[in-house]
Every structure is written in structure tokens, then in C-alpha cells.
Specification:
Blueprint (H helix, E strand, L loop, with lengths): L18 H4 L3 H12 L14 H7 L15 H7 L10 H20 L8 H26 L20 H17 L17 H15 L5 H14 L22 E5 L21 H4 L20 H5 L6 H6 E3 L22 E3 L24 E5 H14 L5 H11 L8 H11 L6 H7 L3 H4 L23 H6 L12
Antiparallel strand pairs: 1-4, 2-3
């Protein structure tokens, strides 16, 4: 089970067998649940480089697109420049997310028919599937806004009503509330099942959606969920910030939810990227020419000098999360080598760049099978969510901020919402959070300008909040309407 604990098997499903005839016993029911998790692993590469955290970050101000030149992976460059078109966009994210929704709906529709399963286990599997469905829809909603939405799998001709972004949010948050209300998810999953949906993960997804929508009516509930995570004592901050992102830091006590990748026996290759195994993203964003502690990478996703410079000298998040090639020394005392490429200022995302032997034990393609998990939700975000939601509901979030700042050993002291957004800026460099924070807080238009960016020629404008719906989807459905900014 590649998206759950690494010791799970990956079952093979005969795709020609109808769902209605597949759910015949408990073992097959579990396989179907596994299948609903599986598309999570495709978000690094699915015939297109589409790592969600990376693509989110190249839309913001800390992470550059990079690569060899502006013709290298032009779909990424156009996203970075706010110049995506219906025929030149990151359309595989759309495909992956709807694949996950389809599989989750199959579990929800057929689980009650499985003979020999307890009601409790059926409810657990359905709840996991419902949260997964909400997670996939959350991705589509944030990137595209006005999307086709369904809660039951479609039949021929496979069309459904396109909802507005607000309608998608309403449906999705209601579905997530239903899943949470089932009271079957553990606050933290037991050892060996890491990667499966927990209550804490569902709470974090809820807070993310509510805060992005600026849904004032649900702020109190979201804050209560953050307090519940804290009160559970199941999670805490790791003192070693840099260590969180090492292989040894996977599923550390700060981790709420990760998408698992593994290198031992990993079999992914370019011809079949949905095989089980590792991820290509560390090589994509790796240091070109590295040879001592890091693997030779392709130079995408370099970090802006301004991101490095925003930290105080003593803030452990600066050199714990960003590698400055000019000062970085390997344990032997030699300086790491680097061959600069396009859009670089000499800084790299230390959290995810490829390390030597990071693909140990691989069996497929060497580049595609690094074992770096994608950290989706950390306890630090729980605290920063609680701080911001406290302020938004008229309270004081300083105690939550203090925990994050004390760990970071920083000198920050402000407690306003703007200060909290800036603390998130520092805490989550290279983790795919910054762009969405700028959009939801109303700061995107003033921050994401060409004047504030070393390489980007265009300004972000509100009509670019949503991407163009892929033209291939428009061509299939005569009732599907293109997002307004792309109708020319």
C-alpha cells in the first residue's frame, strides 16, 4: 500500500471487472480502499512533473521554476509566469485527482454490499474513502475553482453538473463534516499503518478548507479541532527542524500526515509511473553537479535569495530548510559542487533535494525512486492554524506562536494575522503553503508582482486565481464552461 504504511502490500485490481462484482469479501474491500489511496503517489509525476507542493510554490515568491531554460518543461514555466492556457497547463493534476475521486466513490458505493464484514470496519473504510475524496476535491477546487462535482460515480456519457467554486466548497466541507461525525478515525494511526487517514489529518484538511474559503461561520469549529489535536498529546514539535525532512525523520512525532514513497525494491519507471516505489521530485529539484553529499539533480525549484535573507541569523529554519551553496560544506569539509542553471541564485530546497543513496535498493529507474515522503501536514501548522484562527475569532494566539518561535530560535514577536502569515512564510518554505496563504489573505496581488521577483515577467491578478480548465475536458463535455480569464 504505497500511500499508507510502507509494509503494506500493493494489490492488483483487474480493471475490467465491474465494481459491483468486485466487492465480494473483506480482502477485496481493503484492496479497493488501497486503490483509493494510490493516486496520491502520482502527484510527483504522471507523464508530467506535477508535484503539488512544488507547483504551488512556483506560483508564489520563494521558489523558482528553474531547469535548463524557459523551454525546459514549458508547462511548468507557464504556470510560474501565470501564463497557462487551456492547451498548455498542468492537466495531469486534474486527471489524478478525478481518478482518486472515482476510486473513493467506488468504496463508498459498494462497501455496504460486502458480506462478512463488521459494520464498524465498513464505516471505517467508508470514512477513510470520504476524507480522501474531500482531499482530492480540495486540490481541484483550489487550482480550478469551478469544476464538475459528483458524490456518486458517473455512468455513460460520464458528464455531471459544473459547480461554482463556492458550491464546490459547500458540498466538500459538508462531506468532510459527515466523515468527521462518524467518530471512527483515530487521532493518530497505529504503527505500521502510517499514511492512512487519521482524525488529525481530517481536522487539518478541514481547517485548510475553511481558512482558504475565509468561512467565518466555521472558524470556531476549525479552532476547536486544532485545540483537540494539541490536547491529544499525540503530536509535538521536533527540536531538530532539519531532521524532520531526512529519511530518519519520516513519521516523526511532528508528522500528522505524509504521502509515502520508498526506495527499497521500488519499481517505478518512465513507462509505468504508477508502479509502486519512490519519487522523481528530489532529482528534479536536486543540485546540478552535486557529488559529495547530494545527488546530481536537474536544478528545478531553486529558492529565492529573498527567502533565505528573511530569516534572523539564529533562526534554525533558514539553514535547516534552505541550502546556500556558497557556504555549505560536506562532513568531510569540502564544499559541495554545483553547476548553476536557469533561474538560480545559489539556494536550494534542502527539505526535498536528492541525497546520495536516497534511492538505495531501487529496482526500477534510478531517478524515479528516491524515498522522500511528502510532508503534507505537520504539527507546526496545527499551532499556526490555531494562532490565526484565535485572532480571527477575537482571541489571542500568542501562546501557539510562541511554541513555533521557540523551536525556531527566532526573534519574531508580532501577534497580528499579518505576523502569523509571515511566520507561516518562514516555517513552510518549499512545502507548498505560501501561494495559498497569499491568495486567501488578500496579499497575492501586492506581493506576486514582477517587481518583487527576480525572474518572473508578469504580475499575478485576481482573474488568474483559477487555472484554465484543460481543453481536452472542454472538448469532451459541451456544457463545461471555461474559467472566465481564458475565454479568448
Amino acid at each position: 500500500m504505497t500511500s499508507c504504511g510502507k509494509n503494506f502490500i500493493t494489490p492488483v485490481h483487474n480493471s475490467s471487472e465491474p465494481y459491483s462484482e468486485y466487492f465480494t469479501n473483506e480482502s477485496r474491500a481493503f484492496e479497493a480502499l488501497v486503490a483509493a489511496y494510490d493516486p496520491l503517489n502520482w502527484f510527483d509525476y504522471f507523464y508530467q512533473y506535477n508535484a503539488i507542493h512544488f507547483i504551488s510554490d512556483i506560483l508564489a515568491d520563494d521558489i523558482y521554476c528553474g531547469g535548463s531554460n524557459d523551454g525546459d518543461q514549458p508547462v511548468l514555466v507557464k504556470a510560474h509566469y501565470y501564463a497557462s492556457t487551456p492547451t498548455d497547463c498542468c492537466n495531469q493534476i486534474w486527471t489524478i485527482a478525478y481518478s482518486g475521486i472515482n476510486r473513493a466513490c467506488a468504496v463508498l458505493e459498494n462497501m455496504d454490499k460486502v458480506p462478512g464484514m463488521s459494520d464498524e470496519l465498513k464505516t471505517l473504510y467508508k470514512t477513510e474513502a470520504e476524507v480522501l475524496k474531500c482531499y482530492y476535491y480540495n486540490i481541484l477546487w483550489k487550482f480550478w475553482g469551478n469544476i464538475p462535482y459528483y458524490d456518486k460515480n458517473l455512468v455513460s456519457p460520464y458528464f455531471t453538473k459544473q459547480l461554482t467554486a463556492d458550491e464546490v466548497y459547500k458540498n466538500n466541507i459538508t462531506a468532510l463534516e459527515h466523515a468527521i461525525s462518524q467518530n471512527v478515525l483515530p487521532m493518530k494511526v497505529e504503527a505500521g499503518k502510517e499514511g492512512r487517514i487519521s482524525l488529525a489529518m481530517a481536522y487539518m484538511l478541514y481547517a485548510e478548507m475553511v481558512m482558504y474559503q475565509n468561512d467565518e461561520e466555521r472558524y470556531d469549529t476549525a479552532l476547536g479541532y486544532m485545540k483537540d489535536i494539541k490536547a491529544s498529546n499525540k503530536y509535538t514539535l521536533e527540536p531538530d527542524y532539519a531532521g524532520i525532512f531526512l529519511e530518519s525523520g519520516e513519521w516523526c512525532r511532528e508528522s500528522i500526515w505524509e504521502i509515502n514513497y520508498f526506495s527499497e525494491g521500488a519499481s517505478r519507471d518512465w513507462g509505468n509511473p504508477i508502479r509502486t516505489g519512490g519519487t522523481v521530485h528530489p532529482i528534479l529539484t536536486g543540485i546540478p553537479g552535486a557529488s559529495k553529499e547530494f545527488a546530481d539533480g536537474w536544478g528545478f525549484g531553486g529558492v529565492a535569495k529573498s527567502a533565505y535573507d528573511m530569516f534572523d541569523e539564529g533562526d534554525i529554519r533558514r539553514d535547516g530548510g534552505i541550502l546556500n551553496i556558497e557556504t555549505y560544506l560536506t562532513p568531510s569539509g569540502e564544499k559541495e559542487t554545483c553547476t548553476p542553471r536557469w533561474e538560480t541564485e545559489g539556494f536550494y530546497n534542502l527539505k526535498y533535494i536528492a541525497r546520495l543513496n536516497g534511492n538505495h535498493g531501487y529496482k526500477g529507474d534510478a531517478n524515479m525512486n528516491h524515498g522522500n515522503n511528502f510532508r503534507v501536514y505537520r504539527y507546526a501548522e496545527t499551532l499556526l492554524n490555531a494562532a490565526e484562527l484565535s485572532v480571527l475569532t477575537g482571541g489571542d494566539g500568542s501562546s501557539y506562536l510562541k511554541e513555533v518561535r521557540d523551536r525556531a530560535k527566532c526573534k519574531d514577536s508580532g501577534v497580528s494575522r499579518e505576523d502569523i502569515i509571515q511566520e507561516r512564510h518562514k516555517e513552510f518554505v518549499g512545502e507548498g503553503k505560501r501561494y495559498w496563504d497569499l491568495v486567501r489573505s488578500g496579499l497575492a496581488q501586492s506581493v506576486l508582482t514582477s517587481a518583487n521577483h527576480t525572474f518572473r515577467p508578469n504580475d499575478w491578478t485576481p482573474n488568474k486565481k483559477y487555472w484554465p480548465i484543460p481543453q481536452t475536458e472542454i472538448d469532451k463535455d459541451p456544457d463545461l464552461k471555461q474559467n472566465t480569464a481564458y475565454n479568448n
